[in-house]
Amino acid sequence: MYSTGYYDEADLTDSLFERVTMMEGIMTSAATGGGSDEVRYAELRREFMANEQIKLLLPPFVRTYRTLSAFWPYIKAQAGTYAERREIINKAFTPLMDYLEGVGIAPGDKVMSDALESFDADGVHAVWEKALVRRQTDPEGAITSARTLLETVSKRILDECEITYTDKEDLPKLYAMAAKALNLAPDQHSEEPIKVILGSAMSVVNGLGTLRNKLSDAHGRGGKVPVRPSPRHASLAVNMAGAMATFLVETYVEKHT
To answer: How far, in Å, CA of 103 to CA of 242, rounded?
Structure first.
């Protein structure tokens, strides 16, 4: 299907996975002596670049080269054989394909996604989606997004509860304010098990702040070479932030519906 590189309108599909596959086929064809469908490549690239989640996972050469003619010198210099070029292109598209196929997505991701989307699709859920996308390909960015998620949820709840805050409050303070507004502060309860659970939640938030400051891309670094977070660190941060954000959202919804 992809050997010529040319497609008519009947080839268009509503499936994002198939459209990404189509782009990979177009680029592979252009890199291995086949046809060069500049128009369709430009259409697909424009669509994918407009999608913030997909854009993050696009191969770097797709983000860089707006046309196949510009891509050709790059791929030609990377490898001399067709087989090598196919492998380069295939590997570059693998992270995006894995994401679209749900590879590496935890069972709880959808539960948290549904809760956060229903609460604030444009704000909170958008940050959550960015954190999910970055877990495997951009661990530092994922950790930053994890903190941003909790900050955004906390501020949104404070806004809804008409509680004033300033730009000086850090994440632990914002979370503590939101938790108190929702009766989730440990000192608002007398039952020991509940106090322990809510105290542990506070510790998780404090830990996220520390992890972000030490490992994420949020601050400039000097001196010794810093420890780089791995995808497992990013998954830990994102999963904890998602769980805590969902806990706040579900509590807010229960108390205000």
So the answer is: 18
